């Protein structure tokens, strides 16, 4: 078989397994497994080794079992940063880039701020904020999972970005006033667990599921943020579909003046936020 035959065969198997973009994934997995750009294969400058084929079908097999693509290849691009991804933390989603962009829209270069990313996971939000904000902004990140925090620290070190990491639940490790709280917390209801795509079974449950409503952890964070934020401080939150009305009401009752809702690429009410005490 030629290298192209292997890709075609893998794409057929991936399609049978229910993968949405089998051809694109098969091509990428071939390039990743062989550590050789597609252009080199197209130009005929590369011979197929047995080890290439073995590694390729090993990766394809993992994907057929519906292990998430970004766990299979071990990385994910986020806001121009390449992050290592493991099953210790949630895979960063494109929608979360909207959350980072929303925060950055309010952060001017001359501002001296303290920002806390709560539930940092792989470190995606904190590291993107560090990359695109000035040195006068201090970035902290918390997580309840030691394994996730170790991954975030490793990503920070590899990227050469300075973030202060702290182990603990929500804002509990933060013992000083802050200007901004940002979070993409678990927002899927546990009642939906059995009805979701199989890939989610590979991601850590602690990073996915809240209580029956799906907003329980977000509401806990709002209560804590009310005590940690300075007057005029801001909170930014990523939510699941249909949760914005409930969370906006909770923000108002907690003394926040809500921002307009930000909708994602699919028209879902994805980002909410508010200013404490006006």
From TrEMBL:
InterPro entries, per the entry: HemK-like, N5-glutamine_MTase, PrmC_N, RF_methyltr_PrmC, SAM-dependent_MTases_sf, Small_mtfrase_dom
UniProt keywords, alphabetically: Methyltransferase, S-adenosyl-L-methionine, Transferase
Extent of the signal sequence: none
Domain Release factor glutamine methyltransferase N-terminal: 7-74
Enzyme Commission number(s) from the entry: 2.1.1.297
All copies of domain Methyltransferase small, residue ranges: 96-189
Catalytic activity: L-glutaminyl-[peptide chain release factor] + S-adenosyl-L-methionine = N(5)-methyl-L-glutaminyl-[peptide chain release factor] + S-adenosyl-L-homocysteine + H(+)
Protein name: peptide chain release factor N(5)-glutamine methyltransferase
Native source species: Sulfobacillus benefaciens
